[in-house]
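Q: Convert this sequence to structure tokens.
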Amino acid sequence: MPAAERRELILASAIDAFADFGYHQTSLDEVARRAGVSKTLIYEHFSSKSELYGELLETYVHELLERVGTAALSVEEGGEARLLAGLEGFLEFVDERRDAWRMLIRNRASDDVADLFERLFDEVATLVSSLMAADMPSSAVPEDADFDMAVEATSRQLLGAITSMANWWDEHREVPRTQVLAMVMEFAWVGLERASTGERWAPGG
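A:
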């Protein structure tokens, strides 16, 4: 088998193992067993488990970024249509890359890869912020709040909510993707739209 094909086999086997067991519980012995190769052969391609995981993380986070960005920018309308398209791209990734999604989320708190994960997560948040900034009216931002900071905070809030929803969906795959999308839009868009009209929350209001 050519070296490039062996490398792809190792990566495919690794993502299965990481998705099943998590980062710390996955050994290179297990990856080698699934790939049908020796652990020594893995070391010919990757210097460590963290390097192997890091390549997978880079690959799939950037695929997620591309899907969301391409989907959102493919629509001419802004606002609701762009948010809907971006969410569809996000949920399509979760649906079609189940092992990748589980690997990404289950390993977020692993010390060995925390810095890498946070850097890539920041890239996703930056993309969401840039998409939101283009369409969010100043009326949607709380009074006296810095617009750019409010957009960044809102994008983080939205990303966290979507991530939690996707994790819930991963445990309830019987729920259709269209239904999950509708629930997220109910949460995200309705709130943003009401805020953009000037409606504000107030204690006891």
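Residues 49-73 form the longest helix (25 residues).
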